[in-house]
Amino acid sequence: MTVIQFAPLTSQINPTFWHKLTQLKIDVLRLSDAQVPITATYTEGRLIKDREGGRDIALAGSVVLDESSFDDAPQGVGKGKGRMKGVLKNFNTIEEFKSCDKAAMLNEVADKTWSSITSDSEPELAPFLLLTYADLKKYKYFYWFAFPAFLTKPAWEVSGTIQPLSQSPELSSTLSSVNPDDIPQFFHVNGSKLEPISTFKPTQETPTFGFIDPSPTPENPGWPVRNLLTHLLAKHHITRAQIVSWRGTPESSSLFTATVPEQTSLAPSPRPAAAGWERNPQGKLGPRMADLGSMMDPVRLSLQATALNLKLMRWRVLPGLDLEKIAAQKCLLLGAGTLGCYVARALVAYNTEKITLVDSSRVSFSNPARQPLFTFEDCVGDNGQGKWKAACAAERLKEVWKGVDAQGVNMSIPMPGHPVPKAEEEKAKKALADLTELVKAHDVIFLLMDSRESRWLPTVLGGLYNKIVLNAALGFDTFLVMRHGPRATAHAEHVAKTGKETKRLGCYYCNDIVAPGDSLTDRTLDQMCTVTRPGLAPIASASAVEMLMSLLMHPDGIHAPAPPTNAFSQTSTHNLSADDGAGILGLVPHQLRGFLANFRNMGITGEAFDRCTGCSEKILTQFASDPVGTLLNACNDTKYLEKVTGLDKLYEEGKAALEAMEAEAVDMSDEDDF
C-alpha cells in the first residue's frame, strides 16, 4: 500500500473580487480589520489532449473568487463545481499583514472546522482563510490563502490500485444517471442513489463516498477529500472507505480504496494538527501579489482614486459625511470666468457629478493666467476669435475628471436697467425661458458674474423655486460670499413644522434701497476689467463651495440658521453645538466678508427685507403672474422694481418720519420754554 499524496489547491482571483474588496474597504470596513465571511468555488480537474502531440495535459481545478464571493446568499455553483466557505482578514497596513500570527489564525479556522467535522451532521469540509492587504493608492493587493486540512497519523493509504471509475459499471451507471448539476460536492453512494453524507449510517460493509475532485491526476486526489476522510474517521470510526474522485465523466473519474490501520482513532480533543498554506509562484510558503494598476481601465482607475481621498474622510475624521448627497447635487454656475473656473474645480474635487456652466463671452488672451480651465490654444480657437467660455470650460472639466457630466450653455442674461429694444424682445424671452428651465433642473445656483445687475434675474428665479443660491463677488482685496435665504412662504412652513423661530435670511439685494441698474456703461478700462489681487478668487470660490457643503450637511438644509456672532470665535468644530447653528462641518454663515489687507474674515448676518427687489414675496408674486412683462419692465424702466416692491415709498416714509421726529423735538423744546 502507498500513502496517499493529496494535490494541494491553487487560487485564482478574478479582478472583480479586488474591485469589490476596494469598495468594501473604503465604504464599509474603513479602519476595521474584522473578519468578513466570504465564499469561493473550485472546479473539477480535467485531462485534455494535446492536439499536436496527442499527450494528456493536466488542468487542475482552481479555487475561484470574484465579486459574488461577498454575497450573503450566493447562487448555485453549477456543474462540476464545489463551494467553499471561508473568512477574509484584511489588514490596514502592510506591516500588520507581514507580522500577524498566521499560525494562530490558521488554528482558529481549524478549530471551527474540527468542531464541525466531529459534531455536525453536515460538516464544513472545505474551509479557507484569506489574508489580504490592499494598497488602494497603487492598486496592489497582497494576499495569502490557507486551506486547512487535518493530518492523520498514521496517514491514509491506497489499498490496491487507483482505477478509472468506468471499470465499475454499477457506480458509473449510478453517477451517469444523475443530472451533472445535482451531483453534491461530497456524497454517499447508497445503492443506486447519491445521498448527502449527513444521511450515512455505518454498516459492516465498506462504504462508498465521493467528492468533486479539483485534481486532474488520479494518483493525487484533491485536497478536499482529506477532511472528508478525517470526518469519517473522527465521527464514524471508519478506517476503510471506497472513494470516487468525480471529474465530470466516468472515464475521467477515478475510484480507489482509502484505509488506515483499524486501531487508528481521532479523539475529539486534542484535535490533530492542520496544514494548508498555499505556496507562492516561486514554490515557497509566502504571500502573492496582484497588481491591478496596469490592467485597470484608466477611467475607472481615475474615478476610484478621486473618490478615495473623499471617502477617507469618513474613516476617522467625519463618519457622517454624506458624499452621496454631495455627488447628487446638480449645480448651475452662472459665469464661467475667474470665479466660475475655480468654483467648478472645487466642485469636481468633491465629486459633484452634474455641473452646468453659463456664460456669453469668449476666451481672451488675458484669461488663462487667472482662469484655470483655459489655455492659450483656447484663446486662438474658432479662427482666432477665442472659444466660447461655457462650452470650453465644460470640456476642460471632463478632461480633469471623467466622472463629471459637464455642459456649457452660451447665454446672455437680461439685466435691469439695460433696455431691451423691440427687435430684441424675442431673444430676451428665449433667454428667460432657457434660464428658467436651467434653474428648475438644478439644485444649487452659483451667481459668479461680473456685474451686480446680472445677478437679479437668477436671484428671482432661485427664490421663486426655492433653490439654494450662493453668491461670490470680488473687490480689489475684499470678497463677499453669501447664501440666500429660503422663500418667505417656505420659511414660514418650516417654522410652523419645526417650531424653530428663526429669522429669514436675506439675498444679495436685501440691503439695497434702490433697484439694481446699469453699472456697465461709461466705465474706464480699469473699471471694465476685473482688477483684483489674483489670490482672492481662489479664496472666495473655495469659501463658496465649502459654504455649500456645510449647508448640505446641516440637518435644516436651506433653512439652516445663521450662527450667533460669538460662534465665529471658536476655532474647532468640537467647541460648536446645534445652539450655534452648526452642522457636522461646522458653522453655516449667512455672509462671509474677507479682507486680504489684514487677512481677516468676518461672518455677517443680514435679515430678509420685505421690500427687496430680488427675494421679497411682492416681486416673486408679480414675477410668477407675468414673468415676461416683469422682466421687460425691469429692463426698460429703472423705477419699475421700486414701484412693485414699495421701495419708491421708502424715501417718502423716511422723510415723513424724520419730519415727525423734528416736530416732536420742537414741541419738547416749546414745553421747556414754557
UniProtKB/TrEMBL annotation:
<dbReference type="InterPro" id="IPR042522">
    <property type="entry name" value="Atg7_N_1"/>
</dbReference>
<comment type="function">
    <text>E1-like activating enzyme involved in the 2 ubiquitin-like systems required for cytoplasm to vacuole transport (Cvt) and autophagy. Activates ATG12 for its conjugation with ATG5 and ATG8 for its conjugation with phosphatidylethanolamine. Both systems are needed for the ATG8 association to Cvt vesicles and autophagosomes membranes. Autophagy is essential for maintenance of amino acid levels and protein synthesis under nitrogen starvation.</text>
</comment>
<keyword id="KW-0653">Protein transport</keyword>
<protein>
    <recommendedName>
        <fullName>Ubiquitin-like modifier-activating enzyme ATG7</fullName>
    </recommendedName>
</protein>
<dbReference type="Pfam" id="PF00899">
    <property type="entry name" value="ThiF"/>
</dbReference>
<keyword id="KW-0833">Ubl conjugation pathway</keyword>
<dbReference type="InterPro" id="IPR045886">
    <property type="entry name" value="ThiF/MoeB/HesA"/>
</dbReference>
<dbReference type="GO" id="GO:0000045">
    <property type="term" value="P:autophagosome assembly"/>
</dbReference>
<dbReference type="InterPro" id="IPR035985">
    <property type="entry name" value="Ubiquitin-activating_enz"/>
</dbReference>
<dbReference type="GO" id="GO:0032446">
    <property type="term" value="P:protein modification by small protein conjugation"/>
</dbReference>
<dbReference type="GO" id="GO:0015031">
    <property type="term" value="P:protein transport"/>
</dbReference>
<dbReference type="InterPro" id="IPR042523">
    <property type="entry name" value="Atg7_N_2"/>
</dbReference>
<keyword id="KW-0072">Autophagy</keyword>
<feature type="domain" description="THIF-type NAD/FAD binding fold">
    <location>
        <begin position="314"/>
        <end position="561"/>
    </location>
</feature>
<dbReference type="InterPro" id="IPR032197">
    <property type="entry name" value="Atg7_N"/>
</dbReference>
<dbReference type="GO" id="GO:0097632">
    <property type="term" value="C:extrinsic component of phagophore assembly site membrane"/>
</dbReference>
<dbReference type="GO" id="GO:0019779">
    <property type="term" value="F:Atg8 activating enzyme activity"/>
</dbReference>
<comment type="similarity">
    <text>Belongs to the ATG7 family.</text>
</comment>
<dbReference type="GO" id="GO:0005829">
    <property type="term" value="C:cytosol"/>
</dbReference>
<dbReference type="GO" id="GO:0042802">
    <property type="term" value="F:identical protein binding"/>
</dbReference>
<keyword id="KW-0813">Transport</keyword>
<dbReference type="GO" id="GO:0000422">
    <property type="term" value="P:autophagy of mitochondrion"/>
</dbReference>
<dbReference type="InterPro" id="IPR000594">
    <property type="entry name" value="ThiF_NAD_FAD-bd"/>
</dbReference>
<dbReference type="InterPro" id="IPR006285">
    <property type="entry name" value="Atg7"/>
</dbReference>
<feature type="domain" description="Ubiquitin-like modifier-activating enzyme Atg7 N-terminal">
    <location>
        <begin position="4"/>
        <end position="296"/>
    </location>
</feature>
<feature type="region of interest" description="Disordered">
    <location>
        <begin position="262"/>
        <end position="283"/>
    </location>
</feature>
<dbReference type="GO" id="GO:0019778">
    <property type="term" value="F:Atg12 activating enzyme activity"/>
</dbReference>
<dbReference type="GO" id="GO:0034727">
    <property type="term" value="P:piecemeal microautophagy of the nucleus"/>
</dbReference>
<dbReference type="Pfam" id="PF16420">
    <property type="entry name" value="ATG7_N"/>
</dbReference>
<feature type="active site" description="Glycyl thioester intermediate">
    <location>
        <position position="529"/>
    </location>
</feature>
<comment type="subunit">
    <text>Homodimer.</text>
</comment>
<keyword id="KW-0963">Cytoplasm</keyword>
<dbReference type="GO" id="GO:0006995">
    <property type="term" value="P:cellular response to nitrogen starvation"/>
</dbReference>
